[in-house]
Amino acid sequence: MPSKTPIRSPARYHALRALHRIETRAAYADYVLQALRREVALSPRDQDLLTTLVDGVTIWRKTLDWVLARYVRGGLERLDPWTRNALRMGLYQLMFLDRIPRWAAVHETVEVTRALAGEGAAALVNAVLRRISARLEQGRPPAPFPSLAEDPVAHLAVRYSYPEWLVRRWIARYGVEGARALCRFHNTPRPLSLRVNRLRATREEILADLEARGLRARPGAYHPYIVLVEGGLDLTTWPPYQEGKVIAQDESAAMVPYLMDLRPGLRVLDLCAAPGGKTTAIAEGMGDHGWLIAADAHFGRLRRLREHALRMGFTIIRVVQADGRRPFLPEWADRILIDAPCLGTGVLARRSDARWHKQESDLIGLVAVQRALLESAARMLRPGGRIVYSTCSLEPEENEEQIRAFLRDHPEFRLLSAQGKVPSPFVDAEGFYRVLPHVHHMDGAFGAILEKLPAPPAGFG
């Protein structure tokens, strides 16, 4: 049980608690941090350090463990989770947080280790961190990484803290330097991206509000209603958010509804709608006139969608709990969005632990689900209507290969180009919408427009 001994660094104390919980309960970092914020009252400065430590250790875990294995006799696996995570937390500060003096990083980490794990663990943490700190003081790296020339996969995986299977796939597609750039992008903190609800506000109004609050904000590079915010902003207490003028959404995701060629009066079905970022963008694109059914299999996630729709004032959204793999509205829709479940390898920057919760073998099940959604949507689409299939994945099995396979089996469909619907830098040679994080400097995305050919006139042929 954690000690109740008063300590000088509550941020480190609770960060170590969080890291222990993440490892021992296989918990998601975001959920653990949210629970801790409800449980303990910290100053804004300590809140910032808590988040930095938990997210930083989670992201850089492979790199940290590689270094620590050179200093811990018998390997990290023999240590208890408190000690192992204390070493990671201390080393993260030494390697990545230049603003913290090395002596303070070592001393404060040892103190919280003593409070939570006892004197023996504190002695080990102190000895290891002091040895590493001494090397850094001498201008020497704490440990050599695998050779880039001899083993580029191992080098990038250790240097940038990624699973080797993922690095191997990226090198095969983008080359070593492209894979390196992609790894760097996903390890860099991203600004908060907001989409302005243009039925209630203008981008200029939101930018002016943020500037008046002393926050750094700028317009998105491509989407006309995106605002990027640097620094801390508590959305839940910010009046423009409460008044439904904005929603958190990355620029690449916000451009997907543009592929749908929306207008008032359409019948639209969003098959994987929760938590509602794209659903609300669709309602906005329809001027809040028409029919929009937002379906999702997960009841809990639909609650957030309802909250967003109510907060933002959209009246045409009808929320339905349904498994999109099973048709429930035969030939009803003019437009269908399939924002398909996927590996999410284009948005790893948004969640610190996402890379560790994925396996290459997951592709098999995900590809099957995606194909089932496409088959179901094909039966619910009216002739002349369009399906927009989108993912936040970079993996070809979930993107272009999925679409090619569907088109081979469905001659009644054709692929339309995204040209003219989104900015041209995001349209590839086949007409797909494609955003590459290391090229376009935003979250990765893929989109395809599939048109169902009109039925021939009666008696034709």
Give helix and strand order, one letter per element, not per position.
Answer: HHHHHHHHHEHEEHEHEHEHEEHEHEEHE
Q: What is the count of β-strands?
A: 12
Structural class: alpha/beta
Question: What fraction, in percent, of the residue positions are helical?
Answer: 40-55%
Highest-level CATH class of the largest domain: Alpha Beta
CATH topology of the largest domain: Rossmann fold
Rounded Rg? 25 Å
Mean pLDDT: 95
State the helix count: 17
At CATH level 2, the architecture of the largest domain is 3-Layer(aba) Sandwich
User: How many distinct domains?
Assistant: 4
CATH fourth-tier homologous superfamily of the largest domain: Vaccinia Virus protein VP39
What do you see in this structure?
This protein has helices at residues 10-24, 29-39, 44-59, 61-68, 81-96, 102-117, 119-137, 152-160, 164-186, 203-212, 239-242, 251-254, 277-285, 299-312, 362-380, 400-409, 437-440; strands spanning 192-196, 216-219, 226-230, 246-248, 267-270, 291-296, 317-321, 333-339, 381-391, 413-416, 433-435, 445-452. By secondary structure, the protein is of the alpha/beta class. The chain folds into four domains: 10-137, N-utilizing Substance Protein B Homolog, Chain A, CATH 1.10.940.10; 153-186, no CATH class; 192-248, Alpha-Beta Plaits, CATH 3.30.70; 251-452, Vaccinia Virus protein VP39 (Rossmann fold), CATH 3.40.50. The strands form two sheets. Strands 5, 6, 7, 8, 9, 10, 11 and 12 form an eight-stranded mixed β-sheet that branches. Strands 2-3-1-4 form a four-stranded antiparallel β-sheet, with helices on one face.
